[in-house]
Amino acid sequence: MRLFTSLVVALGVLGFCTSPALANHVDSASASVLCNGYSLSVSASQLFDTGATFSISYSITLTPTSGSPITITDSIPVTPDQNQMFSTTVTKPLGPFSSNFSLSGSASLLETDNTGMVTVDNTIDIGFSPSNSLTCESSPPPPPPCTETATNSSNFNGTSVPGGSYIWFNANFKANHVPSTGGTIDFTNGNISFTAGGTSYSLPVPNAKITFSPSASCTSTTFDSITNTWMTTVPLSGDDEIFLTGLAWPVPTGGLPGGANPVNFSGTYSAESSAPGLSIEMKWGAAAYSSFTTDYNSLQIKAGHQTACGPSNGDHAGTPEGVDNTNTPWKKHVVGGARGGGGSNFTGSWSGTLNISICP
Fold first, then answer.
1. Residue 15 above 80 pLDDT?
2. Which of 136, 138, 253, 274 could make an S-S bridge to 163, C-beta 3.0–4.6 Å?
3. Quick check: pTM over 0.70?
4. Could you state, in order of their start, the residue ranges of all structural domains in the chain?
């Protein structure tokens, strides 16, 4: 009996010593959530090169004392270093909120093989600092120091768009005289108006908040469905095309005839802080898609022409770089119509460029 017990113990120790170490895993995730943004720090290790690509998918849920929870989801592309490790901190705008919340969340390491199959390697809880609660006082924001309202008018081409399709309206800009310390441009009261086939259309456009940040190394955008706002962060160096805002519009039954003229893209532009000489050069496009979505974050919109985080390609700002639920790129669904010709014209052809002086 004693011999048997010793043998079992020995085998147990041997098995323990020869068990493989956990490979490909996210090690830590911590977040600081404020009333108008959050920072998330993550690290991963043992990211062995198996021909797969890695990303960290995370969700943060804010549960108010009354009302429905708010969940933020996003992902971070992972590039391992020479030691098969990865760490980064992302900072993104949010809200602003005026309520009290409890916080919870998790982060997962995803592994995608060369067939497109995604495996969840592991999932951990996000730790919140300084605590897992958030208090946001309700107070009206101060009026912007300078504001300008503008309309950029263009037209649709002669190609009709069938009912059940979508038109992806998207706008971008180049900024001039951004303060060296950074700054934020807000776009509000957006509207697209036109008449086609005897019917007049007036389409509200989502708001936008574009932050030029000294700490940003690339341009990123997410959609805040709570405030109906595109939240974009840009390096101080800017870009020749910075995504402004986008609207996915389902074409009504009966379709949309081509040739609408004029098509007016209007809105209000403001600076959140003093920025003498701040101006932008704004243009917009519209492309037709046979299949699309109004779940804007799933579109994975390219936020900058040359400085976008993630995809490194020649696509214009405003291009949907994501995939649908069959893993088919949204770009495969582009067709002719609106201001696009199909093919690789994912944003539609640009309107004329409108110079807008936001701050004198």
1. no
2. 253
3. no
4. 25-135, 146-357
